[in-house]
């Protein structure tokens, strides 16, 4: 065998030996949960992976409740949530050897939105309560057109659902006529396609196809959420099992950095600094 052929064979064997090691050396991070936090997690993951080629980050939605349940089951590294963890979830986690630790990554306002064709510009918290409990059923009751109100809500696995209901409904029940949707995007789609619809979405989901109404005289925006003026607001979280280490810690620190918080703002949410 010639020296050249021998070199080729040796090089091929080295490549075969090294390639599996390279694949095994790639770090993995899995994130699941809130559809509100989803755009932040997706954008941060995209930028982080561009800067770190040896990292693979998987991000999916499904709702805050499902994300926290996945963390309790040990199925994910990070659970995105638009609400705080419940005591029952903490108890279930501890029984499973999991210790949920919250990391606040952004602030958000829950914008109440109607179809752009609707002339209503403003609602009070009491108005919203009367609509979502089913007491009010026609837009004419609020100075709008003589048109049936189509109530659109998130489903019960959503952290946005829980925070919105707590702030607007108190102890009252959501009307059974409400159309339940699995994500912010789904709510936005129904409201933009239905002239009489009303719904609610995180700030990052506002667009020209929706009209945000004033709540108690205040429009939802980064400024009014940051100032505390807008009445339907909440922090956004990422939960980890215990204090994070390794890639999990580096990724959360990235989101909390100036660069990460700029991405939060870019996605339409309120940065922490």
Automatic annotation (TrEMBL):
InterPro entries: PBP_domain, Phos-bd, Phosphate_ABC_transporter. SUPFAM superfamilies: Periplasmic binding protein-like II. Coiled coil: none annotated. This is Phosphate-binding protein. Belongs to the PstS family. It comes from Halanaerobium kushneri. The complex is composed of two ATP-binding proteins (PstB), two transmembrane proteins (PstC and PstA) and a solute-binding protein (PstS). Pfam families: PBP_like_2. GO terms for cellular component: plasma membrane. It is found in: Cell membrane. GO terms for biological process: phosphate ion transport. Part of the ABC transporter complex PstSACB involved in phosphate import. Keywords: Cell membrane, Lipoprotein, Membrane, Palmitate, Phosphate transport, Signal, Transport. It is a lipid-anchor. One of its GO terms (molecular function) is phosphate ion binding. Residues 26-259 form the PBP domain. Residues 1-25 form the signal peptide.
């Amino acid at each position: 065998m010639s020296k050249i052929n021998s070199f080729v064979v040796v090089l091929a064997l080295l490549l075969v030996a090294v390639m599996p090691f390279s694949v095994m050396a790639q770090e993995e991070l899995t994130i699941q949960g809130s559809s509100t936090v989803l755009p932040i997690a997706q954008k941060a993951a995209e930028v982080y992976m561009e800067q770190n080629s040896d990292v693979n980050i998987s991000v999916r939605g499904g709702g805050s409740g499902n994300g926290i349940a996945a963390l309790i089951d040990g199925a994910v590294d990070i659970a995105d949530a638009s609400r705080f963890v419940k005591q029952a979830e903490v108890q279930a986690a501890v029984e499973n050897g999991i210790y949920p630790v919250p990391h606040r990554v952004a602030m958000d306002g829950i914008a109440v939105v109607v179809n752009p064709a609707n002339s209503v510009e403003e609602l009070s918290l009491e108005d919203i309560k009367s609509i979502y409990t089913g007491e009010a059923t026609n837009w004419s009751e609020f100075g709008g057109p003589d048109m049936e109100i189509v109530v659109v809500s998130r489903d019960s696995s959503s952290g946005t659902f829980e925070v919105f209901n707590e702030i607007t409904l108190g102890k009252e029940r959501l009307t059974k006529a409400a159309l339940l949707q699995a994500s912010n995007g789904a709510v936005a789609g129904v409201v933009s396609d239905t002239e009489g619809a009303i719904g609610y979405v995180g700030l990052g989901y506002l667009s020209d196809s929706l009209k945000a109404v004033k709540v108690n005289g205040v429009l939802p925006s980064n400024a009014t959420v940051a100032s505390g003026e807008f009445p339907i607001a909440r922090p956004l979280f990422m939960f980890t099992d215990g204090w994070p280490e390794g890639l999990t810690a580096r990724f959360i620190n990235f989101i909390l950095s100036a660069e990460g918080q700029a991405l939060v703002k870019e996605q339409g949410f309120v940065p922490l600094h």
